[in-house]
């Protein structure tokens, strides 16, 4: 098994891409700490893993990735229960701020950046501390997005945060290379997850399948496979990479909002902030009253 005797921490591990990565990593021999803000879905994944025979290899901890104390606690759990930290997948995410630029509030900006950018920064920071102390390297994976690669592939603040994740990944990869700590990012395209569909992926599967050249919609399993590669020794010479997993979407060219307008709320008559699968209520209102 490719991750035998490895210990992984996966944020946002209670749903979507994170959940699929948890189960794939467990199947590949890893011990896994699931860190997620949503306790209900976190405990559900913990039960699923236990039902499949992984009870001794998995733990769950409620985590707000924007809070440094929570990040420290999730690593402390990995060390106390499994002895070390080999792999960190900074995957927690929310849709965040939506609506036109001129109607976006600083509160929506801060919330989005806190989860998507600061959360990744804190994950890298504390992962590096533990991995350096261990002295034998490690693998850090960050969830970015194709939205961070151009100006028309997602909501404005979300796209800015994901661009920050890509830049942070590259800079951290350079700084941590002497310690044999690899840092890479995955840039998903349209993946049918609860976050993307407001809890009902089946509602967007057909639309997502039509959004890119590949004739099938993106699945969390596709991202889990990419994460497995980057976490494994097969990727020992890969660092500072932004691995695009999008069914050929970015290869097909620009103007995504014209071909698939659902990804852009720029012209919509709404504003606010969405909070993904955290269990917290969305805060969205219509601009036309």
Care to describe what's here?
The structure is a single chain. The chain is of the alpha/beta class. The protein has a single domain, classed as Rossmann fold, CATH 3.40.50.720. It has nine helices and ten strands. It has helices at residues 16-27, 39-51, 68-82, 106-134, 156-176, 194-197, 205-209, 220-231, 256-259, and strands at 7-11, 31-36, 58-62, 87-90, 96-98, 138-143, 181-188, 242-245, 270-274, 283-286. The strands form two sheets. A seven-stranded parallel beta sheet has the order 3-2-1-4-6-7-8, with helices on both faces. Strands 5-9-10 form a three-stranded antiparallel beta sheet. The longest helix is centred in the middle third of the chain and has 29 residues, at 106-134. The N and C termini lie far apart (56 Å). The model has no long low-confidence stretch (mean pLDDT 91).
Summarize the structure.
With 289 residues, this protein is of the alpha/beta class.
Question: Architecture in CATH?
Answer: 3-Layer(aba) Sandwich
- Total strands: 10
- Name the assembly state: single chain
Number of helices: 9
Spatial extent as radius of gyration: 18 Å
**Structural class of the helices, strands and pairings?**
alpha/beta
What overall form do the CA principal axes indicate?
Answer: globular
Quick one: biggest sheet?
A: 7 strands, parallel
Strand portion = 15-25%
What number of structural domains do the residues give? 1
Major β-sheet strand ordering: 3-2-1-4-6-7-8
Assigned CATH class: Alpha Beta
Low-confidence stretches: none
Q: Report how far apart the termini are.
A: 56 Å
